[in-house]
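G., before I forget:
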Amino acid sequence: MKTFLTLTSFSPIQKLFSLSQESGRNAAKYFINTYPKYFQKDYAQPHIPCLMPETLEAQIEEASEAALIERIRMRKVKAAVDLYDQLLQAGTSVSLDVTNQLLDLICFCGDHDPTQENVPEQRNEETAKKGRASKASGLLKATWKENNNAGRIFALLSEPNTHSYSALIRGMVKYGAYSKAFSTYTDLLNNRLKADVHTFNALIIAAPEVKEKYNEKWELIVDLLKQMAEQKVKPNLLTLNAVLKALRRCGTLGKSQAFPVISEMKALSIDPSLASYNHLLAIFYKTGAPIQGQTDILQEVMNEVSGKSFTCLDTKDMEQAYRVHELLGVGENWRLLGNDFQQSIYYARFFSLLCMMENIDVMLKWYRDLVPSVYYPSSNVMRDLLQALDTDNRLDLIPQIWKDIKQLGHANRQNLVEELLTLMAREKHNQEVQESFAECALDIKKIYDTGDRGKVLLSWTAGSLIDLISVLLAAHRRQDAWEMLKLFKTHNRVPSEELLNKFLTCVKEAGEVNQAVELVQISAGFCLPETPKLIQRVQQEFELTDLRDLKPSSAHHLCSLLTACSSPLKQH
Amino acid sequence: MATSLVRQTKLLSIVSSQLNPAACFRNIHCTAACLKNRAARIREGKGDKSVTYEQAYHPHHIGHRKGWLSQHTSNLQGEDGAAERVVEDVFIRRFMYGTFHGCLADEVVIKRRGNLLVICAVMIQKLLPSKFYFLIGYTEELLSHFYKCPVKIEMQTVEEKVVYKYL
C-alpha cells in the first residue's frame, strides 16, 4: 500500500504524502527545539552537529557592540533593534559598519523576525504561473511600512554612506515601496554619493513597477544604465538578469531589446547564466500556450548554449525534441524543468509529439522508460497513446495499457474507458487476443458495477454496453454476455440491431433454442423494429430437432410473438 | 609478613563463625522471581482469543520457528553495548506503540546496520495514508535527534491483524 516517493513525481497524491511527511518532521523539530534538555546527551562519535537541538538563545547578555553583532548574526531582528536603541540611549556610539549590518538585516528581513518557515519540497508549487505573478516576492506578505525601524535608524545616522543607502533602497524594492526607493536614490545623488552595483540592480528591478507604458519603462532602465556608466559602476551578472527580468514586463519592446542587451553584456565579459536564458525564453515564449513558429530563435539559443536545457517544446520537430530531452539529462538541467505543473506540460507535449510522429515501437520504448518513474500521464495522453496504437494496428497491447490506466487512477474517466471499449470491439482478432480482450472487458465491467465503497463511478451508456457485449461474444463467453444483456433493462438502455444479430448467431452455434426465444422476447420488450426479422431468423435457422428442446413456456411465448408480429407484417 | 596474613584470615573465619552460629552457609536471594516459564506465552483458553504467529509460538521456538525481533551485533564475542541496545529497544517499542496507537498489527522489528537504526513495522490501515506519513516523518526525526543516529522506518500495512490461530 505504501507508495514510493520518487524525486520527480507530480501526482497530487504523492505530493500530499511528501508534504505530510515534511510536516511531521517539522512537528518533531518543534519539540526538539522547545525542549532541548532531553536531546543533549551526545552518543555520537564523532559529534554530529545537525542532530543536536538548535541553540536559539543569544549568549552575550550585556549591552555592547559584540552583543549586537551576535544578534545580527543569529538573525534576531527585534532583539537587535532593541539592543541598538539601548546602546544609543546609554550613549555608546555604534560604529558605522555595525549600523550598516543592522540596516542590512532589517531591510532583508523586512522588520520582522524571520519565522521558522517549513522548508518546502524542492518542487514547490507556485500558485501563479510564471510571468503572470506580480513579483517573485509572492511569498512575502509584509510590505514596507512608513515609519519602520529601518527608516528611523537611517535617519539617526549622521553620515550615511553608500552602504546604508544601498541597504535601504534594496529593502524598499524588496518589499514593494518602489517610488520611495527612487526618491531615496535622488537623496543619495543629492548627497553626492555614488551608488554601488547592488543599488542599481534593485532600481532596475523596481523600474517596471513605477512606469506604465513599455517605452517609458525601457527609457528609465536605459537612464539607470547610463548613470551607472557615469558613476563608473561595473554591471555584473545580476544586472543582466535584472534587465532581462524587467524586459519580460515590456512586451514587444522586450523582444527587440533582449538580444542587443545580451551582446553588450557579453562585450563586458559577463556570461549569461541559466537564469538569463530562463528570462529570455520567457520573453519569447509563454509557457503553457502553444506557439507555431519561432523555431529559429530556439535553435540559435540552443546552439549557443551547449549543455543547458529549456522548458518549451512547441515545435513539431522530433529531432529537436530528442536533443532537448538529451540536454535534460546533462547535470543539473532537470531543475530548469520548473515546478511540477510545468513539468507535466513538458512531458505531455513530449508524449503527444511522440504519438504523432513516431512509430509504435519507439513510442512504447519511451513509454516504458518514463512511465511511471518520471511522469504520470494524464488521461489525454493516454487517449493519444490509444490512437497511436490504433493507427499502427497494435490493438493487442490494449489489455496492458488498461492495467496501466487502472494503476494511474484514470479508470473512472468515462470517455477514456468508452474509447477503450470501442477500440476493442471494432474488429475481429485472433483467438488469444480476443481472450485477453474478454478478460479486460470483464475487469472494466467490475469498475462500472461498484466503485469504492458502493459509490458508482461510471454510468453505462448504450454504446459502452454494446461494445462490451460484442467483445465478450467474440471470445465466445456466452454466459457472461447473457448476464450483461439483462443490464440493458436495469439501466434503461436500448441494444442495437447488430448486437442482437450477433447474439443470435452465437446462440445458434451453441444451439440453445430457449435462449434464442428469450432474446427475441427482450427485443420485443424494447419494441425494436427488427423484432420480426429476428423471429424470421429463429424460424429459419433453428431446425425441427432443436425445436423439440423448446420448453412449453417458450413455445407459448414464441407463438404469441409470431402472431403479434405477423399482423404488422401483414399490414406492411 | 606471610605469617601475619595467615593469622589475620584465621581471625576472620573465627569471628564470622561466631557471629552466625547456626546455618551460616545460606545467603540471601536478592533478585525478583523471573517466571521464565510464563514470559511471552499466551495460554490456551476457550478458543475465542485470536493470536498472531509471533504470539502463538513460545520463546523456546526463537531460532527454530520464529526470528528475532531485535537484530544487532553487540551480543557477539568481544562486542560491547548490549545492555544499552536493550534499553534503546524498549524505549523504541514503547514509543512506536504510543505514537501509532492502535495501529500496530504485530511486534516492531528493530535492525541495526552500522550507524543506521531501521524500525520495521506492520500497521493496520486504521489511519489515512497521509496521517501515516506524518507520523513516520515525526518519528524518524525525533528518534534521530534522540539517539544521534539516522533512523529509518519501513512500514507495511495490512487490512486487519493477521490471525494465525485461535486459542
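Residues 511-566 of chain A form one domain. The mean pLDDT of chain A is 68.

More on Monday.
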